[in-house]
Amino acid sequence: MSKNILAAVYERHGNPADVLHVESPPWPTPAAGEAVVKVHAAPINPADLNQIEGKYPIRAHLPATPGFEGAGVVIDIGANVTNIAPGTLVILPHNVGTWRDAVAVKADELVSVPAGIEPVYAAMLKINPMTAWRLLHDYVDLEKGNWLIQNAANSAAGRAVIQIAHELGYKTVNVVRRAELIDELHAEGGDVVLVDGENLRDQVKAATSGAPIRLGLNAVGGESALRLANCLAPGSTLVTFGAMSLQPLKIPNGLLIFKDLRFRGIWINKWYDNATMQERMDAFRPLFEMAKRGLLKTKVEKAYTLSEAKAAVTHAGQGKRSGKIIFEFGE
Asked: CA neighbours within 13 Å on the CB side: how many for 172?
């Protein structure tokens, strides 16, 4: 084992490709209560790029290593660690900076992953599938056969919503921007897949035979979010968890007065911080069960090594990808 690791670091906020560089700090050693995790995979999420740019609500102390999400194997433990053994595949907490070969972490913040789940997919369960799980459980009491509607349905979170809703017996209207995604999302379990446009409400009504839709999931904002709100039944809830269009929600007064819609939001890191370990595991357990059956596999467009960090973040910042950009770490 080499004496040093590679770690991506930024010392100032700015365009990720400009400010990110790779350093080789010494191999971490575990303090009491800590475990050293050899990282196997870490995705590049929009939040990671936003944090490097300085546009995220949490700003790390600089210099900082990015990466809210990742998974790896415990290779060393410090004194007083009883909850986790070397050799265990674990999901890392979102506050350690996962874009590095290895990291020392408080052992009680690690989530053990059961056998049968590959590290690359374990690395991407915590943000998008967990967000999808909470979206389907925390806002509206849905029953089997109930409808929900979401935009950006081809995103990693959107695909997780489709698969989890299908498992739970809920029906999904999935709104996308490109017609070539329709067959693909049907194949993943989407009940209705429509291309976003001015007459969305009429298309949704026709496709669902006018069934009431009580939950809307918004990852785009702007006009797209308003079109979702217009598809909802009176007294329904629209939950915002992303802002891909970078446009604000503009809600006409009538939607509040005559439809009494509720507007909510979720930030999964905050949910995670406030949840007990028991609550976290109650959510991870069904996700692990689905993952073991080959579901919730976030699509990967390309894997990079850490030494290619600049190219990787440039690629991740481009639109119209077919999947996530991830770091994979060699042995």
From this structure: 32
Reading the block at residue 205, the tokens are 């009504």
Q: How much of the chain exceeds pLDDT 90, in percent? A: 92
Q: Which one from 10, 56, 170, 272 is the annotated catalytic residue?
A: 56
Instruction: Name residues whose C-beta falls within 8 Å of residue 97's C-beta, 6 or more positions apart in sequence.
Output: 7, 60, 64, 65, 66, 67, 103
Indicate whether 143 and 110 sit together in one domain.
Answer: no
Cα 224 from Cα 37, distance rounded (Å): 41
Tell me the two tokens of residue 59: 């700003």
pLDDT in tens, 118-148: 999 999 999 999 999 999 999 999 999 999 9
Range of the structural domain that residue 43 is part of: 7-124+298-328
CATH number for the domain that contains residue 77: 3.90.180.10
In-domain check, residue 35: yes
Residue with tokens 């009176």, as numbered in its chain: 234
Q: List, in sequence order, every residue forming a beta bridge with 102; answer none if it has no partner.
A: 38
Buried b (16+ CB within 10 A) or exposed e, 199-232: ebeebbeeebeeeebbbbbbbbbbebbbbbbebb
Residue 142 contacts residue 215 (beta carbons within 8 Å): yes
Give the count of domains, the chain: 2
139 is catalytic: no
Q: Long-range CB contacts (< 8 A, 24+ apart) of 303-308?
A: 303/41, 303/120, 303/327, 303/328, 304/328, 305/329, 305/330, 306/6, 306/7, 306/8, 306/22, 306/99, 306/100, 306/101, 307/6, 307/22
Mean pLDDT of 53-62: 88
pLDDT in tens, 74-122: 999 999 999 999 999 999 999 999 999 999 999 999 999 999 999 999 9
Which segments of 188-267 are extended strands (E)? Answer: 192-195, 213-218, 237-240, 262-265
246 and 141 together in one domain: yes
Instruction: Give the pLDDT of residue 2.
Output: 57
CATH assignment of the domain containing 226? 3.40.50.720
Question: pLDDT per residue over 264-283, tens digit each?
Answer: 999 999 999 999 999 999 99
